Amino acid sequence: MMQTPAHTTGSTFSEIAAKLAATAKSLHASGWLSGTSGNLSAVVQTKPLLLAMSPSGVDKGELTAEQVLLVDEGARVINGGAKPSDEALLHLEIVKQRQAGAVLHTHSIWNTILSDMFADEHGVAIEGYEMLKGLEGVRTHEHREWLPIIGNSQDMRELAATIRAVLVEHLNAHGLLLNKHGLYSWGKDLREAKRHIEILEFLLEARGRTLQLRSRGN
Amino acid sequence: MMQTPAHTTGSTFSEIAAKLAATAKSLHASGWLSGTSGNLSAVVQTKPLLLAMSPSGVDKGELTAEQVLLVDEGARVINGGAKPSDEALLHLEIVKQRQAGAVLHTHSIWNTILSDMFADEHGVAIEGYEMLKGLEGVRTHEHREWLPIIGNSQDMRELAATIRAVLVEHLNAHGLLLNKHGLYSWGKDLREAKRHIEILEFLLEARGRTLQLRSRGN
Amino acid sequence: MMQTPAHTTGSTFSEIAAKLAATAKSLHASGWLSGTSGNLSAVVQTKPLLLAMSPSGVDKGELTAEQVLLVDEGARVINGGAKPSDEALLHLEIVKQRQAGAVLHTHSIWNTILSDMFADEHGVAIEGYEMLKGLEGVRTHEHREWLPIIGNSQDMRELAATIRAVLVEHLNAHGLLLNKHGLYSWGKDLREAKRHIEILEFLLEARGRTLQLRSRGN
Amino acid sequence: MMQTPAHTTGSTFSEIAAKLAATAKSLHASGWLSGTSGNLSAVVQTKPLLLAMSPSGVDKGELTAEQVLLVDEGARVINGGAKPSDEALLHLEIVKQRQAGAVLHTHSIWNTILSDMFADEHGVAIEGYEMLKGLEGVRTHEHREWLPIIGNSQDMRELAATIRAVLVEHLNAHGLLLNKHGLYSWGKDLREAKRHIEILEFLLEARGRTLQLRSRGN
Prior knowledge:
Four copies of one chain form a homotetramer. Chain A is α+β, with helices and mostly antiparallel strands. Chain A contains five helices and nine strands. Chains in contact: A-B, A-C, B-D, C-D.
């Protein structure tokens, strides 16, 4: 099946699994995947859709390429016996809505705090930072990025449907937050998705710390 | 004695000591064991109870498997000449009350601060975070974790008795705080105990930083 | 051309490129170049002026000496096919105004926040810290460093002209901030420029955190 | 001279220089010696007094044992041609007053901030933390550590005299702060001095962050 796919990414599953493990190690070192939290995926082929995905419950600082799972568009595991993340359906939804080649989900202190702080506004705006130019398609710092915030749920089908609606409504969003849960971002490949995550994490921290300072009336 | 125990963990003392040293290195790198603070233990066999335990006064970033002590249920050292942690009795109490396979004790900035800030309430509640799902037995973010806070003492027998009472009263607690001292957590093995520590440290930091932000009236 | 220059730094391009890559790795590890942000340059020869410069859009934690570009005083690439940073003109302007041997540009959380907080004052003063003595020419902590803040722009010629005017007006400044963008500093070589960046980043963080604490009325 | 000293530490200069370089690397990794700041010393022999000391202006993350200087009790360099730290006289004063075997001086964000915040009170009290037990001679958390704060100066003889008076007045102090400058601590050897620095840095950060939180009226 995987030797002659009609639509592929040009990389083998092993190559993608190795990159996924390296990305996990890097994000873990930043402190955004602690306590086995977070998950990562990358498209291996598009028709039919196959995703390389991190398994559930593994310390992401120790994830090896051999542990990476291959799942189909129904979130069923094709290879190996491990369980994929509960959130596989969310990854698949994002891949479909954004034609993404990779999806990353991090649990950082600052994305957790801001997803809580701005929950009532259903999103947080990040505006006027040079760093925004690192997001695909953004050409100037005079950009307003709206990161939608979605209520958390353990019903993955319901959550996937909500994510679909939010992505359709906010066509320019480069990421989304789940309330008191974490950040999702994506890109055409793992490299771009990682860049987006790093930029959004940076901006959320800058935004949060600025709020603290502004409290003195500056 | 240790070749044919009636009840063992299936691992040799050397294997457990090596895992304990690796866990110490990882927690030290997170900044939670600085200045020789903190201690770690893991069950080697249960009947009679024998614990692998970090020695007192050692830099945990440099702890080797060879330095790990073997102590009995009276906190007496079976091998080697080094002194176990003063807090060996607390580890033993937790092992007995929770049938734990490993106990970890960290001194982080945020667990120290929150143990002080919420001392008058005798505990701190952590509620509604997805990260809570990483705690054993928790299936949804709609969970309220109560971390009891116990007054600090240098009388280890008294402190062990207090811990016993608190663990009996709060049967679902995954950790406890000593006031202006640190965090204890545990698990069925070192891997699970480390996951619990990482999750509780993350949540205490998120809780503490959220308090700072909330002070501006958001 | 580069074998017999009239005015050189005494180092070959390869040597400078290797030092530039090492400096990038160090600053990236400090978290000041995340998401492919920031850029670095060092003078290879002065007449005519040639700069070693980091390419655009590269993860600075993975920058190799082979990827470092050689650009002329018009910001044209002499070797290789990659694109130099959009901000090459700003590096060149600083090199000319300050006779600098190296220019570094970082995006840190604290330089971003303070460039925003003090934008209306067109600069931030840092005064009375021993750490200031590490800036070239400063002999006592009784020094007042004024870091000018310039409005951000995507018009690099306009921005270069503004930087020129600001550097002429503030002849003793060791760095400058672009609003919600980042910090520029420089030195006679990469070693000195790196020292300046580390000192200014330290002082901006100390200044920012002191503002937070002062808000309680101390 | 150094082969048969009347009073030695039992270690050769090379052994001590290697330990000093390793200690520098560790403290630098904690972010307490950035921008070539800070300095370290250790006693090689006592009669006459000879100190191993870090040279001035060197990146402490790259300090090698070969770069470590040997200085006499007048702060004159015995070996090599490099310049010792301007603060050599302060190290010598502390060695004499405390019979210390090693002296460490760090520039951290939190020691800088608290040395400023509490300057008018001429010291900062740290009380009731378990972490205090890691300071030599302290047996319980029910201890009040007073860290004296001294006004900064570039006159090293004057500063040394002030330090002498402060150490005589506060015989139990394990460290002292220079205003907007940094922390000094010491111990019977490099290992103990490093433990003291780590503990005091931890407690200053916990103290500072607690002040921030208390501002909300808790």
